[in-house]
Amino acid sequence: MGGGYPHCELYDKGKKRLGCIGCPMSTAAAAELEEYPKYKQNYLKAFERMLENNRKKGIACSWNTADEVYRWWLQLDKDESGNSPDDMEDEQ
């Protein structure tokens, strides 16, 4: 196939694009991370390390847990108008 590269079997599984698993630019990020739970766990571990680093350095942020960062990263708490609870706090 094209340029001597092997055909990727993910296209056979219905994937239309290939890229980073969990990319926040993808509308399928949450579903991808459920499909690949080890990647989800790695994101959560990375977010926990980030939060711990912030605590050690005295850097304030609005998240307390890795799950809160994860939900923000994937925009899981957005309402129909595209606003998240954090967005509303910023406006006040």
Give a verbal description of the structure.
The protein has 92 residues and is mainly alpha-helical. The chain has a domain at 33-92. Helix content is 47%, strand content 0%. It is built from four helices and no strands. α2 packs across α3 (66-73). It is elongated and about 50 Å long. The model has no long low-confidence stretch (mean pLDDT 84).
Write a concise synopsis of the structure shown.
This protein has a domain at 33-92. Helix content is 47%, strand content 0%.
Characteristic terms for this protein:
92 residues; single chain; 47% helix; elongated; mainly alpha
Percentage of residues in DSSP E strands: under 5%
Number of helices, counting only DSSP H or I runs of 4 residues or more: 4
Average pLDDT for all residues? 84
Using only C-alpha atoms, the radius of gyration works out to: 17 Å
Helix proportion of residues, in percent?
Answer: 40-55%
The H/E string reads HHHH
The structure class reads: mainly alpha
Shape estimate: elongated
Distance between the termini: 55 Å
Identify low-pLDDT runs.
Answer: none
Task: Tally the beta strands.
Answer: 0
